[in-house]
Write a structure and sequence with these properties.
two-stranded antiparallel ribbon, about 110 residues, single chain, about 30% helix
Length: about 110
């Protein structure tokens, strides 16, 4: 899946890195690390790329369930300034903007391919 995403990515998509968690529950996850000017642009570019991938014959039966992108710049800026993450970065369950709640990968999915 990762190689197909790279093949179908266009220069304007801003793709930096692709990761896949095929056994994540409740459904597989493809993580796209994108350069973008805004959260909306990142989500739009990521969704468009995923739709191009899903048009391929080898993806028959697959569908796009969700396309979201966290804006991580404020998080890292707060770490660099020493102020730490601001309230709201964690939702009380240990899930934050950098880790999606409800879609955990199993430990076997954490290996590199």
């Amino acid at each position: 899946m990762k190689s197909l995403v790279h093949v179908l990515a266009r220069e304007g998509d801003g793709v930096e890195h692709v990761t896949a968690h095929p056994r994540a529950l409740p459904y597989p996850i493809v993580g796209l690390y994108l350069r973008a000017e805004s959260l909306g642009e990142a989500e739009s570019n990521g969704a468009a790329l995923c739709r191009r991938v899903l048009e391929r014959a080898e993806c028959t039966g697959w569908s796009l369930v969700l396309a979201q992108a966290p804006m991580v710049t404020p998080f890292y800026e707060s770490l660099l300034t020493g102020s730490g993450p601001q309230p709201g970065w964690l939702d009380g369950t240990g899930q934050g903007h950098l880790r999606p709640g409800g879609f955990p990968s199993t430990p076997s999915d954490q290996r590199r391919e």
